[in-house]
Amino acid sequence: MKFRKTMALAFAALALSGPAATAGEAQLSGEVRIGELNSYSTLPSFTEPYRKGWSLAVEEINATGGVNGKKLTVISRDDGGKPAEALTVANELLSREKADMLVGAFFSNVGLALSDFAKQKKIVYLAAEPLTDAMVWSNGNPYTFRLRASNYMQARMLAEEAAKLPAKRWAVIAPNYEYGQSAVAVFKKLLSEKRPDIEWVAEQWPPQGKIDAGPVAQAIAAAKPDAILNVMFGPDLVKLVREGNARGLFRDRAVVSFLTGEPEYLDPLKDEAPVGWIVTGYPWYDIKTPEHAAFLKAYQARFNDYPRLGSIIGYSAMHAAAAMLRKAGSTDADKLIEAGRGLSLTTPFGPITFRPADHQSTMGAFVGVTGVRDGKGVMMNPAYRKGEDYLPSEAEAAKMRPAGN
Amino acid sequence: MSAPPLLTATGLARAWGGVRAVDDVSFSVAAGEIVALIGPNGAGKSTCFNLINGQLQPDAGRVLLSGRDITGAGPARAFRAGVGRTFQIAATFASMTVRENVQTALAAGRGQIMRPWGAGRNVARDDAMRLLALSGMAAQAERPAAELAYGDVKRLELAIALAGAPRLLLMDEPTAGMAPADRADLMRTAVAVARKQNIGVLFTEHDMDAVFAHADRILVLDRGRLIASGAPADVRDNAAVRAAYLGDGVLFAATSGPHPGDPKSS
Amino acid sequence: MSFWIAQFLTGLASAASLFLVASGLSIIFGVTRVVNFAHGAFYMIGAYVAWSLTERLAGAFGWWGGVLLAAAAVAALGALAEILVLRRIYQAPELFQLLATFGLTLIAADLVVMLWGPDELVGRRAPGLTGSIALFDQMIPAWDLFLIVLGPVALGLLWLLFNRTRFGVLVRAATQDREMAAALGVNEKWLFTGVFALGVFLAALAGALQLPRESVNHHMDLRIIVDAFVVVVIGGLGSITGAFIAALLVAQLNAFGILLFPKISLVIIFLVMAAVLAVRPWGLLGRPDVAQRPPAATSARPWRPLGAAGRLAMAALALAAMALPFISGEYLVIAATETLIFAILAVSLHMLLSVAGVASFGHAAFFGLGAYGVALAVKGLGLGMGAALALAPLAGLVGAGLFALAAARLSGVYLAMLTLAFAQILWSIAFQWVEVTGGDNGVLGLWPTGFAAQPAGFYWLTLGVAVLVIGASRVIMFSPFGYGLRGVRDEARRAASIGVRPGLMRWCAFAIAGTGAAVAGALFAFLKGSVFPDTLAIPVSVDSLAMVLLGGVQTTLGPLVGAVAYKALSIWLLSQTQWSKLALGLVILAVVLAFPRGLVGVVNQWRDRWAKRPPGSGEHP
Asked: What transmembrane ranges does the database entry give (chain C) (predicted)?
């Protein structure tokens, strides 16, 4: 009985202390506040390196005097991996934590929800990771900027490589949701434009996260394609690679694969990493530019770990946000938008610009061929593709955005 | 043409797998008549009950209530036609008080059960109390039904069954599981109400004291077939009945202990 | 031809692991009647532990030893969980144990990330079984052949265990009749612990045996648990052979289904379940009696409407709630709005679960229908907020009405699982039919207008709707109809014999609950300004169930208290920590152990005890 009463009291105390403990107003003077949220609990493999990346950037920014003479403070939250929860968190960042702008998100749907939220609340949102094209085009709005090379850009980079292959019969394996569907649609369209002679012989659309890889691999192999487009990633990719290897699916076939060169997805496979796939990714071990070398040195010194793509995105996003705040000289949303349009800065991937017409940055991606080196999966002969070369012209992009945005 | 009897069952048959639980059974019950349906364990009493109640669809045969066909109509329609029943293992609404149990039945009987407004516990309070008084439960009206002693649960069941103002009352082992003193009391109550309100009663019972004390007529089932029917004295002397009961070990001696249920036919 | 054979063999291999998980779940349910939501967590932990062991132990013996050791270790963990948690709450209302295992699942999800790190782990493959074998000129992985053999062997071993050992005979006796088993002098406590450990062993073994096929990651638990449940239900609760056949059926239909319909994977398992249950309401080899159990909500404490003091208190509470926007910041107002919306959802589920005694594992279906109803009304029909809010609940009404018609023959856990299937099929449509629903990217721009555009305005609107819905639910609960519902719940036979039609009453309960949930969903759409397939997903169903159970399934105010406590806590935890699941899981476990009748249930208990009066005498005019 005593135990029960104690529990009751403890629970009541917990319930009551909630609002009281956190309702305190933040110290607002003398700092610029960025509200940051990402899927830390849902997708830690991507977001933990991302967190390290932006933490490093914040340290660098504040070591060199902060922003506009003020200290840059980041209030970071988990977004629960769901749009609805992300909006709860965004509300908290905005109305209680008095964030001056929002940064973050991994999932496309979370990003889109935040972008619509930003428009509604008239606050600037810098989308770091989400890939969906809707973010800057069909659902684009003035308050949203996007850093990472989008779905369309990566599809175009890969389609360009695919067009060079002799393969005529193509098969598709993609997760059955918006990301997979739009990646395939863009890739198909661009490749078919360049190569009217190819045909699409098989498609498999397993549910994201739940691929039954054996039957899928078998079904694709039965169509005897010359080449395969893969959009699966994460745990699905591991299953597909293992089953595909065991069943000889990839033997003598070209494979073009989205994102597979990112360390987040390639590293877990170790010596089972696929060989000879044309992929987009982040070959941190082979990038010799001075910008990247400086970043790599600082990152490894700070965290005693190698960077993943998430690290680059987090690091660049925070620097981009700071640059936007500096250029605006203010935290006013309209001034930030003005500053963001055409904002240029240097990232570990080189110089990027946020295009005035669609707020998409010109950060590119690396395209290469996978291989195994010292028992680890790597990207061989990676080449950086500049984002601006794979985007539609600004005039075309502006037409894709809703009127008045 | 004279008025049809209250209940007429003709040629009822129902098989479970290959076993004929009820096989070509015909009988009738008149208004105000108390009829006992007896037989050894597994004789098909409960199946027979469920056929009359409409719970089961017979393989053959018909059930008429005052000439109206209620064969396999389902318990709810049988109820509306005027059939009330109590269960072998008493079934009351455990989450309600005693009075609310009866009020729920009254609300259903008066077509108010689909009404989603108004307080259910104010429906027909007086009538509920009257029924509880009839079955000797008035003093316990406000108690939770779940707390009642088993004998009182059976009384409550009787009150619930009477709430629909039935013309025919089916009672499946009304006194099973009760203390001896309670049994006689309950049967007396039930029979008194039935006689007063001209309700026909069909009941099954293991307790032969109760059967012979109250039944106007007795039907004897054995292995699904009706082997005897008539006044208590006639049935008592029937050779076939004696033979059927020999195997069961319960020859018409008055038995007083509680009887286990009849699992095969329930 | 050879391709078809290869596809068939592949299907067999997929069936094996599905069977192992499902059989464990089935055994646990059969004996303890616990819907073990944590089964997926044990599967996942089995994989993680096996990964650690096989990375360290060398050689073939090391690998196989590691896998078995992992399964045994996790089984011990399962036994511990049973002794520390479940054993204390077997007497609690049905489904309450589900809440406890849900808490365990939340804890496990965060713990594995803490212990093993965020990266997915690719383990070593089984020594000697890494290659492939050419069969009919198709390459079949050797590991698949092992799994194909393992399935029937596991079935055979389980058969021997249950038919040739004393333990097995006792387990079977307990599955069929718990009281009888107790009468046989079985030590029920340890039998339950043993059975739980056995079930967990099978789950952990299945998880460990995934090492050669897939990476170990912290999403494995939820990925397997629903499939496992569906397989158990298709096979028939408590039937191991049934689970085996069901696993085969699902795996083969999937292997061949994707050839014709490449997008079918997500729904096929639910379609199979719906089809099987339509023909056999108790699964392939299940028996009706296993499903017939007294409903969770039957309480020996008669429900009472609030007396004058209680009503005054509620009115005062509502008035106080109205004042919130004047004394707090915008965030708290928005958080309170969300909490109110979930209170509406919980109250609607309570109508179904507690008043009508119908368990639903898919309440998200009706919530999501309301949310998508708003999206359709605003984006498709161009309606304003008021009209959309008025129309969207109809989507829930129609959806629930149609579903209840289709599911009329089912009851108990089978019906609950069919609600889950319904929700999952709707979710799949919303998720995959991108052209119409926007898919995963959702429908945006559904912000409230007019006075409700401000958070305070929308809060008052929501508060008004919540007061209406909660008030209406209480009126219904205590109306003659409410008594009829409870009558059907307490004793369906008795209810039918007094002229209450159980089927009709249950249908009405679904319609009311579906409409109420859709009201919540519609408000949710406007609160978030957007609708995503998440509104139809399992977490919404589980959350709503957790709220009702937390508050006390046998009480009338439970859903309100449960929703406020649960939602406020989870919103707060989300803002406080990245390990919100761990914290929430611990709180749930603590509540479950301390208050096995829920938060309101325990208050009632205390009140009864301290008042020292018969509960029936507290009559209010």
From this structure: 6-27, 34-51, 63-86, 98-117, 145-162, 190-209, 229-251, 258-279, 312-333, 340-361, 381-406, 413-434, 458-483, 504-527, 581-600
